[in-house]
What we know:
Number of strands of chain B: 8
Largest interface: A-B, 16 and 18 residues
Number of helices of chain A: 3
Helix content of chain A: 40-55%
Order of helices and strands of chain B: EHEHHHEEHEHEHHEHHEHHH
Oligomer: heterodimer
Strand content of chain A: 15-25%
Distance between the termini of chain B: 50 Å
Amino acid sequence: MSLLRALFRSKSQSAAVAKDRLQVLIASERSSGTPAEWLPRLQKDLIEVIGRYVPVSPGAVKVEMERGDNLDVLEINIVLPERAGKAAS
Amino acid sequence: MSETRIVVVTSGKGGVGKTTTSASFASGLALRGHKTAVVDFDVGLRNLDLIMGCERRVVYDFVNVINQEASLNQALIKDKHSENLFVLPASQTRDKDALKEEGVERVLNDMRTMGFEYIVCDSPAGIEHGAVMALTFADDAIIVTNPEVSSVRDSDRILGILQAKSRRAKEGREPVKEHLLLTRYAPKRVDTGEMLSHEDVRDLLKIPLLGVIPESEAVLHASNQGQPAIHMQDQPVAQAYQDVVARFLGEEIPLRFTTAEKRGLLQRLFGGK
């Protein structure tokens, strides 16, 4: 839809682009705030929840987020403590 | 004595027309017979006095009153156009933390006792202490927004702060009444798809529209002369501000100056603006 509009729109009609961008941005900022605000909390919560089942050190939970134009990737890496003789992850 | 309403004029972003709006809105309320005060919360960057044309009469300021170095009566400057309007200038030199919450509350309450019907708080830009103080005690908020991406986003941020940090929000009372005011609106550019329309901005921010102020050269003339834009005779910008005041007071008035003037054949042939 946006692509079609972009194709058939003369160059000067940028207001529609502005509206699309703002819609996405405002919706995400309203619902959860910026990742910078909630990522540290997510990490803390994860450590706490996982810790209820397996002993993990705080440094063992890594949370990373990558943001693209159309897709966000949230990567969570949890390194479990070594079991006797063998590493598990 | 009628109840006092505290109205914050805020935006997040700088340069969108907060002080212009505060001056004209407060003047408009006073012109309609309401005893009104307009308070400059921009500590360190006093400007409301210039826009109101009373800069030479400033002796004491808001911070002096907060620190009880001067009385409200000493600090309030009577407007030259209206008997009902008083200006409380910001402090020019002191530190930003001079606006202590208890002090601001005390001064606002003293103004209630003096019988002010409206207290218009001109917020500084940003989301720092001064901006938070300006909105803390508000009953109404006028969100001044330009039809432009960064201004719309910042307006949304300030709405979030209003909903979190105002007294009304913290005490779980009826929320601050939010009003959208679009300024520097250029209908012609909206028609050609270059500028967000007032419907677009209202859809994005999801708050009711109080008015649309057209982009106008008269605003610069007004500030050059120290005269609030609402006093500029026969100017669309003045009429638009008068409409805003009327709507705020509950009148139903259709929007004006939101469509581009169609130029007639003669106008097109013989030029002119």
